[in-house]
Amino acid sequence: MSFVTLGARDLERIRAFYKGLGWEPGVDVENFVSFLLGGVVLGIYAMENLNEESAPGLAADGGWSGVTLACNVADPEGNRWEIAWAEGLEWNENGAVTKFGDSPRVVRR
Questions:
Q1: pTM surpassing 0.70?
Q2: Could you give the CA distance from residue 7 to residue 64 in angstroms, rounded to a whole number?
Q3: pLDDT digits (tens, 9 = 90+) for 8-43
Q4: Quick one: the chain helix, strand, coil %, rounded to 5?
């Protein structure tokens, strides 16, 4: 985990709250503020902007949590990495995917 972003319904209020704890912002712009906390970045993003970027089509007032979690990786060719959940995945005791979709494939090691 390298980045946790929270959607803020009242960005100014939550920005002031975390600054009031004595936390120093790393980035502090109009619709986003971030804090480096022990090797993990806590980002606070205006809910409407986070909703547009991360959950388009879902209501920010109940359609999703307004929280994103990221594991950032270095890729010299600019490929985008993500952590995702997909319905229908099954894993073995080693954490390897053994089934995805309709066709089971058993992987044993």
A1: no
A2: 10
A3: 999 999 999 999 999 999 999 999 999 999 888 999
A4: 15, 35, 50
70 — phi, psi (to 5°)?
A: -135, 145
Contact 66, 6 (CB under 8 A): yes
Tokens of 91: 């894993």
Residues forming a β-bridge with 5: 43, 68
Residue with tokens 């066709």: 103
Q: Tell me how far CA of residue 6 lies from CA of 13, 45, 48, 78, 96, in angstroms.
A: 13, 6, 11, 25, 30
CB atoms within 10 A of CB 46: 20
Residue type, 8: A
What ranges do the domains of the chain cover?
A: 3-74
CATH architecture of 3-74: Roll (3.10)
For residue 34, count CB atoms less than 10 angstroms from its CB and return exposed for 0-12, middle for 13-18, buried for 19 or more. buried
Q: Which residues does 14 contact at the CB level (< 8 Å), separation at least 6?
A: 6, 8, 44
Tokens of 107: 């992987």
